[in-house]
Specification:
Number of strands: 4
Number of helices: 7
Strand content: 15-25%
CATH class: Alpha Beta
Shape: globular
Largest sheet: 4 strands, antiparallel
CATH topology: Alpha-Beta Plaits
Oligomer: single chain
Helix content: 25-40%
Structural class: alpha+beta
Length: 155
């Protein structure tokens, strides 16, 4: 099992609805290690870099309007299969289709205002983390609880 990193964004609707603490708790409770975190305002330029593959699509203007509408909290999480673990924890993009127990299933009712972003693969994670974080902003440490989260052969 590979230790991976994923970029996680608490989107403007999450911050405005004051759900960041609850979402962060779920991520930590799942056993993911936080190695980077900051609050920022996404600019049009930053949105264009993050969503580069969507810039020419008809829905992009609404996506840019939404992601730049208020502050976001950017996180880098690390752990065994962090990308798939986080995507399962988040649930499907559309909150109306997400199962109870997932973040979007418990807190979301929209496709666009879906609270949280997570990288969808290793290449995307590497690219997205590089957009939001410099290497020196990531903290490398071994949590004292780590041996109790996952067996050595699962890391």
């Amino acid at each position: 099992m590979a230790t991976e990193r994923s970029l996680i964004l608490f989107k403007p609707d999450c911050v405005q609805r004051r759900l960041a603490g609850q979402l962060l708790t779920r991520i930590e409770d799942k056993g993911m290690k936080l190695i980077g975190m900051k609050m920022l305002q996404v600019t049009e330029e930053l949105a264009g870099r993050h969503y580069a593959e969507h810039v020419d699509k008809p829905f992009y203007p609404l996506l840019e309007e939404f992601i730049t509408a208020g502050p976001v909290i950017a996180l880098v999480v690390e752990g065994p299969e962090a990308i798939s673990v986080m995507r399962n924890l988040m649930g499907p993009t559309n909150g109306r289709e997400a199962a109870p127990g997932t973040i979007r299933g418990d807190f979301g009712a929209s496709r666009q205002m879906n609270l949280i972003h997570g990288s969808d693969g290793p290449e995307a994670a590497s690219r997205e983390i590089g957009i939001y974080f410099a290497d020196e902003e990531l903290c490398h440490y071994e949590p004292t609880l780590e041996p109790w989260v996952c067996a050595d052969d699962e890391k």
